[in-house]
From TrEMBL:
<protein>
    <submittedName>
        <fullName>Uncharacterized protein</fullName>
    </submittedName>
</protein>
Length: 99
């Protein structure tokens, strides 16, 4: 490998590490190749979807049941908490229907 190729590879890997990414090799079945590449691409994004996917995969691999209270925690994070919004429905009678 020439020195220019080595420099290019070093610069590429340096740019990856600045973004918080690392290059690594994985052994697996040929049938799973596209799945693993897609999973790696989604996890590399680092957005909320990546965090959700990472948590789901970790939970599935660990074999532990999901933590209880997830819905309650999501409701507590809602922007409507403390907004004093009235969600009560009016108690009106229905319309008359002729059968």
């Amino acid at each position: 490998m020439s020195s220019s190729q080595k420099r290019a590879i070093e610069k590429y890997r340096s740019r990856l590490s600045k973004r918080g990414l690392a290059r690594f090799e994985v052994l697996g079945r040929k049938a799973d190749q596209d799945l693993i590449r897609t999973l790696a691409r989604l996890l590399a994004d680092g957005d909320a979807e990546a965090a959700r996917l990472r948590a789901a995969v970790q939970q599935n691999i660990s074999g532990q049941p999901a933590k209880k209270g997830g819905i309650l925690a999501a409701l507590r994070r809602s922007p409507l908490v403390g907004a004093d919004v009235d969600f009560s429905r009016s108690k009106e009678g229905g319309r008359k229907v002729e059968i």
